[in-house]
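Private note to self, pasted from the team thread so I don't lose it. Backbone tokens:
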């Protein structure tokens, strides 16, 4: 492995503060997935641009994708259903595309499983979930759009042939819809049924996301036979001033270890996750489930609002989890849209959206939050490896990681420091700010005490472009606060007024007694997925460099704090391409 040290003068680039997160908070700076551009919906891609396309993330050959639907493991195969426009690179004409895999990484594309064809889904087949019924029989629940007013109902589909290992064909019986909104429900905000679970009374339960005034709702329904559903008198949970809830997910987590659970009982902790339509972020709480009352109660350590925990603090939305019985784990899957925002950009590329790497998730030993980590199968794509250990970085120094393909790589690094004495004081006026706002103020070029230090990913040779993923440690009144940022403000020289280049960030709840912080970043041409402190805080960025592409991309580790940092260990791999056929 060859190393290049960069002096502090090289790192001291002009500082540009981009403090626009609050302005864009209402939609996370991106257009909602259901935004309609009728003039582009049927414009099929002619030329597919390869620059920026990912190598090991899931993408169909062309056109628009969004929410991952109904992931499941069945008879030796993983099934991924997802929202797809077969006719163009913007949202519209949505069908349930279908792919299968034996390892969650390499995929076989099949014909769409569900598409508008009946009165109960004539105007759309939107998101849903899969449940494995007794007798090993899969069933899908999905939201159908029945009229031009976007009235939403809940339908089901079943495989036409259970002996087909790929479950290619799905049937939508004529007794659909199973659930129609009553007068108390906002019929245009009533969607995304969850995987069903059975209570001790032998009745199935599901929830759906909805809205009453400004209160987000997880509306519950029960059924004895999976065909006749009755709405519960009260929602499983609701929260004021959070807006419409999409893609809800409700599942148990073990109090010990990292194995997944598929049994809903009073001996477990529970997680309620919702995708917030207004902010375009994913929030969750950890709590308890009162099985007798069918109520979910967040723990007092879980903030139940937009200030709460997120599955990912970046470009990650509409996630869906499932229990994988083959490896006794729970896996979640999220979607990342494009950050170039305007539909004409996507039309020109010929594609839009990716599915992020599936993540195993479990409850942290503290019981306060989830931990997420890329599924182990991803490591089969690791190729050439380079290592570095005990490399000291003084103030303003950088070291280049060479010998791999920086535009398509997997990096795991542990940083250490000898003292916390130089941690900057945490400004009390930041207490009410989101972490993104603090990152925009205290970016990677702003010299600090203990940090910023981290990785400069997808960097051009002279740092005209780079996406830094880094830590900065502050001293608060009672404790230390660790800020983790993935900052896209310098990610590209391409400029237009619609390019979204945010300073995504979250705080990391970590014990600094051993004076170490770890980081893993998955770099794949136009996406950087990062996992701080073993997966306690996750941030995904979509970026579009113009110089730092393919073999012209570089990777650096850096320190811009006055406290020296040591790269205790660094392992980096070139990543091969996943097979999607």
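Design output:
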């Amino acid at each position: 492995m060859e190393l290049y040290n960069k002096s502090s003068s090289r790192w001291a680039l002009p500082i540009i503060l981009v403090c626009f997160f609050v302005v864009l908070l209402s939609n996370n700076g991106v257009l909602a997935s259901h935004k309609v551009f009728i003039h582009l919906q049927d414009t099929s891609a002619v030329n597919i641009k390869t620059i920026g396309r990912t190598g090991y993330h899931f993408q169909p050959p062309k056109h628009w994708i969004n929410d991952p639907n109904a992931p499941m493991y069945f008879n030796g195969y993983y099934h991924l259903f997802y929202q797809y426009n077969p006719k163009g690179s913007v949202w519209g004409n949505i069908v349930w595309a279908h792919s299968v895999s034996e390892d969650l990484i390499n995929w076989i594309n099949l014909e769409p499983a569900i598409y508008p064809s009946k009165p109960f889904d004539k105007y759309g087949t939107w998101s849903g979930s899969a449940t494995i019924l007794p007798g090993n029989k899969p069933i899908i629940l999905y939201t159908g759009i029945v009229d031009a007013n976007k009235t939403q109902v809940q339908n089901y589909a079943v495989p036409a042939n259970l002996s087909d290992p790929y479950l290619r064909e799905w049937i939508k019986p004529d007794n659909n819809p199973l659930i129609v909104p009553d007068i108390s429900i906002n019929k245009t905000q009533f969607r995304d049924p969850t995987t069903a679970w059975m209570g001790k009374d032998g009745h199935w339960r599901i929830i759906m996301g909805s809205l009453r005034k400004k209160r987000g709702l997880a509306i519950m329904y029960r059924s004895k036979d999976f065909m006749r559903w009755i709405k519960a008198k009260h929602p499983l949970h609701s929260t004021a001033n959070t807006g419409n809830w999409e893609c809800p997910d409700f599942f148990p987590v073990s109090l010990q270890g990292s194995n997944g659970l598929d049994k809903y009982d009073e001996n477990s902790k529970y997680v309620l996750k919702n995708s917030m339509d207004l902010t375009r972020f994913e929030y969750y709480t950890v709590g308890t489930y009162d099985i007798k009352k069918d109520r979910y109660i967040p723990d007092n350590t879980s903030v139940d609002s937009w200030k709460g925990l997120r599955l990912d603090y970046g470009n990650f939305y509409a996630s869906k989890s499932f229990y994988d019985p083959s490896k006794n784990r729970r896996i979640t899957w999220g979607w990342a849209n494009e950050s170039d925002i305007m539909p004409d950009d996507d039309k020109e590329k010929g594609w839009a959206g990716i599915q992020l790497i599936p993540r195993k998730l479990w409850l942290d030993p503290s019981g306060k939050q989830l931990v997420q980590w890329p599924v182990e199968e991803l490591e089969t794509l690791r190729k050439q490896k380079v290592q570095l250990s005990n490399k000291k970085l003084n103030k303003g120094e950088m070291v280049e990681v060479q010998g791999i393909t920086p535009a398509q790589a997997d990096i795991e690094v542990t940083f250490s420091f000898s003292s916390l004495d130089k941690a900057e004081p945490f400004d009390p006026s930041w207490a009410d700010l989101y972490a993104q706002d603090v990152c925009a103020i205290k970016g990677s070029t702003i010299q600090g005490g203990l940090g910023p230090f981290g990785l400069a990913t997808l960097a051009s040779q002279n740092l005209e472009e780079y996406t830094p993923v880094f830590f900065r440690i502050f001293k608060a009144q009672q404790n230390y606060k660790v800020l983790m940022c993935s900052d896209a403000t310098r990610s590209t020289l391409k400029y237009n007024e619609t390019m979204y280049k945010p300073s995504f960030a979250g705080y990391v709840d970590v014990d600094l007694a051993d004076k170490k912080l770890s980081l893993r970043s998955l770099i794949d041409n136009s996406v950087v997925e990062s996992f701080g402190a073993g997966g306690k805080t996750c941030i995904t960025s979509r970026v579009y460099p113009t110089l730092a592409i393919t073999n012209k991309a570089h990777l650096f580790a850096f320190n811009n704090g006055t406290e020296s940092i040591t790269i205790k260990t660094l392992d980096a791999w070139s990543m091969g391409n996943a097979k999607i056929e």
